[in-house]
TrEMBL record:
Keywords carried by this UniProt record: Developmental protein, Differentiation
SUPFAM superfamilies linked: ARM repeat
Organism: Amazona collaria
GO cellular component, one term: nucleus
Subunit structure: Interacts with PSIP1/LEDGF.
UniProt-recorded name of the protein: Interferon-related developmental regulator 1
A GO BP entry: cell differentiation
Domain of life: Eukaryota
ATP-binding as UniProt keyword: no
InterPro entries: ARM-like (IPR011989), ARM-type_fold (IPR016024), IFRD (IPR039777), Interferon-rel_develop_reg_C (IPR006921), Interferon-rel_develop_reg_N (IPR007701)
All residue ranges annotated as the Interferon-related developmental regulator N-terminal domain in the record: 1-296
Domain Interferon-related developmental regulator C-terminal: 341-394
Family: Belongs to the IFRD family.
């Protein structure tokens, strides 16, 4: 998305160059997007996929509500056709575009119409054992996100969660010949279905949350033994979220196998197995230290997210799960959408968008000369720090 990076910051304008005609730029963008929408119907699969990817880049980096509103049915039909008739890569691109379409439209009637059309198609692909794993994975993610954004119908919410449960619960089944969970090529699908289900759990009524906790809390720890790092992390973070929700519903919540679970989590938080890559070990230890704190001490390490002049604090697992999900979909456009997208601002309780005029934005941007001085100072500091480390290594090396 590097060629669209300028869209991701509303303050990204040329300070020293001529003024940009925003209206002409918008018209030019819309003209290109109309062309991409037409190309989603092209006979060539490569052309259709390229058009879908270009639309995804634009939708993730700009707010295009009015443009999309006029063409939402055309876009929905194109996405439906690409998911039904396309091959794996095209289906993945179409599912990703469907997510962004709902993010752009928010939780209104128009989005409900989109989901009514695409929901059954997505469920069919997710449950289709003959479809590619990548397509099923993308559709599972899309199904969870679109349902989270759109549905006010509790029946539809439960139906979607049941569809996702039918997928990831297959990961509970252990291989009889081994002590751990059997690793299959379906693991990526199980991970996506689990994360999508967890996202939907955060908007369930409390009585349903209790049922799901009773159903899954004693089974999820088995996934901590999976060979796949991402599955272990997904299972760990889901456990932390379930404990958080359980304690919200019942302050005296008691888990029978707490000692066994904390032993597993502590082992993962201090894992030093040599057969695992160093990067994987670091990532795993970092995640499971936080999960262990959540389960044992009811603690969450607060994170701060900066976007424009605003700050948002992520102070619980529910908020982290929601933020991570939308960040994966929006990529580098996440900050821009947090500033300007009404739906996302409502989800994170940020209030209406902060309106800043051009003069205020200009005062917030540092000059090119100041930026150059800052970068030079940072470069010198890094060089000095690295030089000291290298000197130490050189000294140590002389003794061997």
């Amino acid at each position: 998305m590097s060629h669209c990076s300028g869209f991701s910051d509303p303050a990204s304008f040329t300070e020293d160059g001529p003024e940009i005609d925003e209206e002409a730029t918008q018209e030019d963008l819309e003209y290109k997007l109309k062309g991409f929408i037409d190309l989603t119907l092209d006979k060539s699969a490569k052309t259709r996929q390229a058009a879908l990817e270009s639309l995804k880049n634009a939708f993730s980096s700009k707010i295009l509500y009015e443009f999309i509103m006029e063409r939402r049915m055309t876009l929905t039909d194109s996405i439906e056709r690409c998911i039904k008739k396309g091959k794996s890569d095209e289906q993945c691109a179409a599912a990703g575009l469907a997510c962004l379409l709902c993010v752009q439209m928010g939780s209104g009637i128009e989005s409900e119409e989109i989901f009514k059309t695409l929901g059954p198609v997505l469920k069919k692909i997710v449950c289709d054992g003959t479809a590619s794993i990548q397509a099923r994975q993308a559709c599972a993610t899309c199904l969870g996100i679109c349902c989270f954004i759109v549905t006010d119908d509790i029946t539809e919410l439960y139906s979607t969660m049941e569809c996702l449960e039918n997928i990831f619960t297959k990961a509970y089944q252990k291989d009889r010949d081994t002590n751990g969970v059997s690793s299959t090529h379906n693991t990526v699908l199980h991970i996506s279905a689990l994360l999508a289900w967890t996202l939907l759990l955060t908007i369930c009524p409390m009585n349903e949350v209790k049922k799901k906790i009773e159903m899954h809390l004693h089974k999820l720890p088995s996934l901590l033994s999976c060979d796949d790092l991402n599955m272990r992390i997904a299972a760990g973070e889901t456990l932390a979220l379930l404990f958080e929700l359980a304690r919200e519903t019942d302050a005296d919540f008691f888990y029978e196998d707490m000692e066994l679970l904390t032993e597993k989590l502590r082992a993962l938080a201090t894992d030093g197995n040599k057969h695992r890559a160093k990067v994987d070990k670091r990532k795993q230890r970092s995640v499971f230290r936080d999960v262990l704190r959540a389960v044992e001490e009811r603690d969450f390490p607060t994170e701060m997210v900066k976007f424009g002049p605003e700050r948002m604090y992520i102070d619980c697992w529910v908020k982290k799960q929601t933020y991570d999900t939308f960040k994966d979909i929006l990529g580098s456009g996440m900050q821009y959408h947090l500033q300007s997208n009404d739906f996302l601002r409502n989800v994170f309780e940020l209030g209406p968008p902060v309106m800043l005029d051009a003069a205020t934005l200009k005062t917030m941007k540092i000059s090119r000369f100041e930026r150059h001085l800052y970068n030079s100072a940072a470069f010198k500091a890094r060089t000095k720090a690295r030089s000291k480390c290298r000197d130490k290594r050189a000294d140590v090396g002389e003794f061997f």
